[in-house]
Amino acid sequence: HLATSLPLPSERDHLRPRIDLVVFMIDIKSKYSLKNVETSLAHVDASFFLGKVCFLVTGVGRVNACSIETNAVCKLGEAYCSPVLFCELELEGIRVTTAQRLLRMLRICAGHIPGVSALSFVSLMRKSYDD
Amino acid sequence: MDETVAEYIRRTVLKIPREEIKMMLQKWGFLSEAQLQTLNFHQIKDNISQEVVHLCEENSADIKQAAALDIIYNHMYQNKRMWSVYQMKKSGEELEYFDITDFKKKFKGSLRSALKNVTITFKEYEDNAIWIRVAWGTPYKKPNQYKPSYVVYHLQTPYVFISASVLKSNLPLLCQALIVASNYHGIREMELRSHSLNSLKDIVFKRYSQNFQTYTPKPLQGGNLEPENADIRIVQENRSEKERIHRLNQEVFGSGPQPKLEFAQYQLETMFKSDPKMDVLDKKEPFRCLVKFSSPHLLESLKSLAPAGMADAPLSPLLTCIPHKARNYFKIREKKCLFPESFVSP
């Protein structure tokens, strides 16, 4: 399900299945994108932040066009205890790899991988030198 | 052959891209087919142009023929120049039968009576347009062929497109000659400028696709909104909002290609509105400010702002009125009434 912001339109509530993973896409070229994500985060139920939320930063290939500092995004990830992934959508190879990573995360969050829960996975993803 | 003419022809040929030289010389028609056969178009342009000049010498070219070649070049590469649009005004009388020879005679007469040293060249094209090239001199100097003005006049319309040379002082003479020759009473400059001559024509002749308000009680089926998302596993949560934006965009811009403009300039003479407690600018004078939008294709980029999520739909009418009002230079002054909003001056 693709949405431009949260909350989701309520008229489609009955058509929506269970949500296993929320990926917030932040375009590093747009300050507005970061602001939009920060506003939308307030509409997410706290239980999602136990491994079912992930931040995806796009556009990192275009170094000259960065409007947001990676530091700011990493701080956001720490504040919400969620992993931050970086990718460049314009390159097919990276696009495919990122999609595969997200799919693997989704399978864990949906409970398809026995022995690994969303919460245990996200604690593995956390950077060890932060602790 | 005059040395200055030879040099001018040589420089004009040098401007033409190598692949186009043969075609342009053929269009010019001054050199015979046999002469063109003798030219080697596979050498460097410097040599090609020298050979062309030799052939022109054989045919004794004069400035008239050289100017004709220049018009052909500028007609083909018209988008390299900046064009302004002028509108002529009639006093309301019936337009007499238009005679092209009469027009040319009156135009030349009017210009030459004011300024002896001018080179005037005419060329008619199929789309009912007449191209006029004027090279300007002074009472003591021969015309400068390298800075001519170009006029494109569409017969039976009051519109003239002018690409003036740097010498702005000659513009009134040019306008005067146009009015005299075409039996109009006045001429005014419209605030419309662009490099794309065809787009300017599209705007003033209303040839671009405008959307006429049609009554549709239900929203139209957004059939070709996202053709690439044929994957049914992707669900767009904000589909209704996307469709609303698409519909509003269609209403404002129409569904066809937009005329090509490069700038929109807004000169603001409005009051600076700040918190009265802050007391910034205690002089109650308008805050003068110039806002300029530029883009390789301004109207298309404005059209794609809302669908790309970069602006709210509907866009400000100050931006969307550009083709309808046929202008891209605006002066915005304070509206002096109850509602302190700005308005667009005529």
Specify the helix fraction band of chain B: 25-40%
Q: Give unreliable regions of chain B as ranges.
A: 216-226, 337-343
- β-strand percent of chain B reads 15-25%
Strand order of the largest sheet of chain B: 2-3-4-5-1-6
- What fraction strand of chain A? 5-15%
Pair of chains with the largest interface and how many residues each contributes: A-B, 10 and 9 residues
InterPro entries (chain A): Centromere_Cenp-M, P-loop_NTPase
Organism (chain A): Promerops cafer (Cape sugarbird)
Protein name (chain A): Centromere protein M
Keywords (chain A): Centromere, Chromosome, Nucleus
How is this structure best described in words?
Chain A: InterPro entries: Centromere_Cenp-M, P-loop_NTPase. Chain A: Its main location: nucleus. The complex is a heterodimer of chains A (131) and B (346). Chain A has a single domain (18-128), classed as 3-Layer(aba) Sandwich (Rossmann fold), CATH 3.40.50.300. Chain A is built from four helices and three strands, in the order βαβαβαα. Chain A has helices spanning 31-41, 70-79, 92-109, 118-125, and strands at residues 22-27, 53-58, 84-86. Chain A is globular and about 40 Å long. Chain A starts with 21 loop residues before the first strand and ends in a 6-residue tail after the last helix. The relative contact order of chain A is 0.16. Chain B is of the alpha+beta class and 346 residues long. Chain B folds into three domains: 3-79; 83-91 and 99-205, Double Stranded RNA Binding Domain (2-Layer Sandwich); 242-333, Ubiquitin-like (UB roll), CATH 3.10.20.720. Chain B has twelve helices and ten strands. In chain B, the strands form two sheets. A six-stranded antiparallel sheet of chain B has the order 2-3-4-5-1-6, with helices on both faces. In chain B, strands 8-7-9-10 form a four-stranded mixed sheet, with no helix packed on it. In chain B, α1 (3-15) runs parallel beside α5 (63-76). Residues 216-226 and 337-343 of chain B have low confidence and may be disordered. At the A-B interface, loops of A face loops of B.
